[in-house]
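Risk register update: the risk that structure generation would not scale has been downgraded. Supporting records follow, first protein first.
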Amino acid sequence: MVGLAAAFGSGAMTNSIAEIEDAGCIFVIGSNTTACHPLVARRIFKAKEKGARLIVADPRNIQLSRFADLAVQHRLGSDVALLNGMMHIIITNGWHDTDYIENRTEGFEEMAKVLEIYTPEYVQAITGVSPSDLEKLAELYALNSPSSLLYAMGITQHTTGVDNVKSCCNLAMLCGNVGVHGGGVNPLRGQNNVQGACDMGGLPNVYTGYQPVADPEARKKFSKAWKTPLPEKPGLTITDMVPAMLDGRLKGLYVIGENPRLSDPDWNHLSQAMKELEFLVVQELFLSETAQVADVVLAGASVAEKGGTFTNTERRCMRINEAIPPIGNTLPDWKIISRLSSAMGYAMDYESPEKIFNEMASLTPKSYAGMTYDRLGIDGLQWPCPDQSHPGTPYLHKDTFARGKGQFHALSYQDPAEMPDETYPYFLTTGRMFAHFHTGTMTRISPHLDVEQITGYVSIHPKDARRLSVRDGDILLMSSRRGEIEVPARITPSVSPGVLFLPIHFGETPPNVLTDAEAFDPMAKIPEFKVSAVKIQKQTAC
């Protein structure tokens, strides 16, 4: 969100999912779309049937690569260099949209100056992508407008995650692909309501609709609505919370619908930090790894047992309705929070999710003000929807960017925080697989899903397997500077030599024992889950 907001003025997906079908070119980078966003992948395949060109850039040979006009496997963490190289070629060949750049953007000259050194040969030395493939990537993207760029956490979970996103924005603006139907820069959110949670102020520095906590006028408005003074200082990010636990500044933690013991980096570091807490509360559906160490577990209701709204990756706010009453002693999350707040001295007397939504809409005029429960209906509405006569907005930045003019950023490639060396010679990257979702809190208790993949594994290239005399199923000891785990091997050419892949869903083989809590993007504070340095040793044969 930070990178998109800096370039465009809004941190949201620019275009609608359905518009992917109308793209002339689809560029997928840092997204294993068929596994993580299969309904979006379906749109990609429909676009292909209509004649769209598909290009894929991913360090792994993902399923989508098999259907691409061109797929490249660039080195982990080299996204800025790859994108800069594409832009160097586009400018050299005069394929950029000069009128769009002049009329709708700023900062182009500074960026173009930085791009001069990113020749195909220079980029090959960083990324491993051949000059011919790089030139073809640039040509397909630039000459088949409108081009839609899709990315996911393969772009963002780096120490340079914000720069990676800004580079995607640079490329799209260079070719005039923002503010047009079928184009745009389109993040595919990692969970079903990430966009909605952020829209609702689920960030430490903003209220709803990204109104800054530090803004006196915004703070005054919310203080008046909530009838209480509000702090001027933003709260802590997740990466700030762990050091605060360790040094005693953070004494209590309330976790809702999250499993940080498996989803946050450096298991050992985090476990020690949680031991320093005086009180840990977890609000969950199931006994996740985090809930198992909580002082109190509050039983939340499932999606079928509650009503409310969510906002998906394309900014579409939609209603959900209670199908059955909450089972046992569970309650919808809003009721639990309201009762806790009231018991602690601040009365929350909301009668329903609709009342909460109406309050939010009245305080969020630029994006949600025109929405009501009745208007949302079955299909929902896409923000911005500023008044009740407004139909919602399928794509953003049509005539002008949210910030006025789009901002190019002059960016140079930086190595990941941790590179392989003699002691830790392998790259490790992490991600999702088709059958499971994030930390497996829900999917692994489903017998139908769990049978698809019941244990964790590490993907290893056949060349590396032969060198280590490793066969499928052999147990490998994986070690980093943070810790070690034992995990069965899966030999596959989907990873490059020297690269290992671990899925994130399995508490028995948790990748975050190996990943680094100290390596995160300085602006977005997102950990570098996609690049770590590790070593492996064969333990037992299958």
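Supporting record for the second protein:
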Amino acid sequence: MNDFAELLDRLAYEPSRNNKLRLIADYLRTTPDPERGYALAALTGALSFKHAKAGVIRALIAERTDPVLFALSYDYVGDLSETVALMWPADPSQKPNAAPSLSDVVETLATLGKTQLPQQLARWLDGLDENGRWALLKLVTGALRIGVSARLAKTAAASLGGKEPNEIEILWPGLSPPYTELFAWLEGRAEKPETRDLAPFRPAMLAHAIEETDFAALNPQDFTAEWKWDGIRVQAAAAGSGDHHLARLYSRTGEDISKSFPDLAEALRLPGSIDGELLIVRDGRVQSFNVLQQRLNRKAVTPKLLSEFPAHLRAYDLLVDGDEDLREKPFAERRRRLEAFVQKLHDPRVDLSPLVAFNTWDELTAARANPASAGAGADAEAVEGVMLKRRDSTYVPGRPKGPWWKWKRDPFTVDAVLMYAQRGHGKRSSYYSDYTFGVWKKSDSGDELVPVGKAYFGFTDEELQQIDRFVRNNTIERFGPVREIAHEPEKGLVFEVAFEGLQRSTRHKSGLAMRFPRISRLRWDKPPREADRIDVLEAILGKIESGRGPARAAS
């Protein structure tokens, strides 16, 4: 555990990507099985422990320290694992050799019961030093936050055998910790692992957001365009036939969600693998994401739910046709095969994502601005933008820059007033970086501000310092870690807030909640009395709910 803790500590303070790769590769090269396999699993987010919740850790530290002191310390530090690691009182009865190995921790947590967990965690914490305690708690909670992506960790593993990272990505869904087969292959001691799953998940290919400056280097004739639907990216895989038929629906990250969508799984009768978008379609019309949300994460899939929220797959790409893997073939060919596959499948619950006709970037710009007139029709409000795909692009796991681009429609924007602020976590724990903002609403006593959303990104580091200074100088009330900020008609700070959508909410006094809000601009020039009113948001929501075409509007 100590070696793993040292690795995490060095990674957390290392800004260079190449140096992070070197650190991980050196650790994997010099650490024996199964220790290195569990470390790789932790770095890629492949470990989860059912009973190891943050509440358990809070209860343990409450037994050992003053709760008020802990609350103040946690508020200042901003990270639970770091706070507990620093405050945990050392037990002089513990010997240095009491520190567990990473393998011991992972294998014990996998079998430990809920009632036994607190005592075991306490014993481990007693046997570790400050750095070891921090690493243990990061591992247990699954929130490493050390600037290492799953892709980076897999790239480091691939370097052990001089392999391409994509080779690891393709194999990954069929592997499980501690990855002894993977390391044996990378070190030349065994053949390449093969998945035994008949309908496995294939790592998804993702797109880069396109900027206006990118178009100059791109030839429109090299690309196809299709609508970017506002749903959930999924992958549908099926294999076998008759009594041996197997069908699965996966999320973008590879989670099996088939049980939540049995109606869609029933439609996957042909062997193959489709990349597409999960939507709700009623009476031939795609519903908003707000409607889809009512179907997501339901524990019980009732006949009423299936009837009121019928799941639909809009197909983007074909990865496997029968037993043939198509990922190395160009997109143009995969698209032709997809059209034939969907036609043969012949199920109303699965259809093709239509291509958007264009010859120039100006034509595509016009289509993006008004999907309803460019072929999307009544489904226009479910369009997030357009996807650009090179005709010759192969299907590559991850996010390679160049083959695929996403060009989202302009977001909604409103001017809102800062009402509350809270310190962030990790590197932002010293700054007030989490903001609640509101708009004006008429009440019996006159105009009042009502909260409509929260945001913690969209601003630069310099702007963060400016906002933090404003918060500290204009705090009028404190509620634990939350600061209430002066928000009067003539005194306060106005944000231009960008967001992707709206929905009704009983949790907000305004009755509305924004989807994906972020701070797009600081309006130092605008007094709070000139911020937007709830009527503006109601008008936007009305257009969304009625499906009356684009409703992107700036104030």
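Residues 412-546 form a domain with the OB fold (Dihydrolipoamide Acetyltransferase, E2P) fold (CATH 2.40.50.140). On this basis the risk owner (M.S.) recommends closing the item.
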